[in-house]
Amino acid sequence: MDLTQNFVKAKRPCADGYKWFLRHYPGGSDYQRLLDALVQADRVSDACWLLRQFGPTDAVLTLDAIDTKALVFAGTLIVRGEINVESVLMVGRNLRVAAGIRADTSIVAGESIESAGHLYSGGTIESGGNIKASWGIEAATEIDCKGNVRAGWDIRAGERISVQGSLLAGQDITAQGAIRCGHGIRAGGRIVSQHDILAGNGIEAGSHIGSGLHLEAGWGVKAREAILAEGAIKAGEGLEAGDRISAGPGYGIYAGLNVRLNNWEDSARVIAPEKPTGLVSGCWQPR
């Protein structure tokens, strides 16, 4: 794809960036060549802006390993080894890596991200498709995914986790901000957030579930240990815990919100060693 002066100007670039383009490429430039030149000139934010404006290509780049300051590629990037980037790693389509991925500022893919090792970002991790890592997934700030997120180990975020599909971890899922998931959340260990935990389907933890504010699931909530929230606990179906179920002071516990009253005994059971204080709805059954 060739980018002419008028083509770029139509996207309303910043004045400084457009002047740089006119000075270095008065006759226009090939799309990827321009992205590479911007990165080499330490204009990484301009390269990211350009990719967001003109979108992905079908190009495929295959490398043995990457160790660089920044990388912005419009197509699919396949790496046989590991990736180590000092600032931004951004691809227009898929990112597939046979080892670990580390970027100190952000990792962005227009489609999917797959890592056979650990996936770490010192800032955000963003994906227009699925995110999958054989080891852990960690972002110092946010994880934002339009598909499913799956990790063999932990999934951690210094701020929020937002997933439109399912959120699945072999070990813990933790976030300082809210955890919002369009489908289900499942962890082999604990699920802990300092804010809301919200799931369109069910929530299941191999350890305990702890929410710094509200806990809400469209289906049921199940934990091998306790289910705790500083706000309200709401489940479309049942609640089951190996330890106590407890909402915040002054808040209620609601089960069976999406179940007919005559089906509560089967589909809205509340199971725990002791009856939760503040149980408003659902069919209580001692464990």
Would you give an account of this structure?
The chain has 287 residues and is mainly beta. It has a domain at 174-287. The strands form 4 sheets. The protein has a 13-stranded parallel sheet with strand order 3-6-9-12-15-18-21-24-27-30-33-36-38. Strands 5-8-11-14-17-20-23-26-29-32-35-37 form a 12-stranded parallel sheet. The chain has an 11-stranded parallel sheet with strand order 4-7-10-13-16-19-22-25-28-31-34, with no helix packed on it. Helix 3 runs antiparallel to helix 4 (44-54). The protein is elongated, with a radius of gyration of 23 Å.
Helices and strands in order:
Layout: E1 2-3, H1 5-9, H2 15-24, E2 29-30, H3 31-40, H4 44-54, E3 60-63, E4 66-68, E5 71-73, E6 76-79, E7 83-85, E8 88-91, E9 95-97, E10 101-103, E11 106-109, E12 113-115, E13 119-121, E14 124-127, E15 131-133, E16 137-139, E17 143-145, E18 149-151, E19 155-157, E20 161-163, E21 167-169, E22 173-175, E23 179-181, E24 185-187, E25 191-193, E26 197-199, E27 203-205, E28 209-211, E29 215-217, E30 221-223, E31 227-229, E32 233-235, E33 239-241, E34 245-246, E35 253-254, H5 264-267, E36 269-272, E37 279-281, E38 283-286
Parallel strand pairs: 3-6, 4-7, 5-8, 6-9, 7-10, 8-11, 9-12, 10-13, 11-14, 12-15, 13-16, 14-17, 15-18, 16-19, 17-20, 18-21, 19-22, 20-23, 21-24, 22-25, 23-26, 24-27, 25-28, 26-29, 27-30, 28-31, 29-32, 30-33, 31-34, 32-35, 33-36, 35-37, 36-38
Antiparallel strand pairs: 1-2
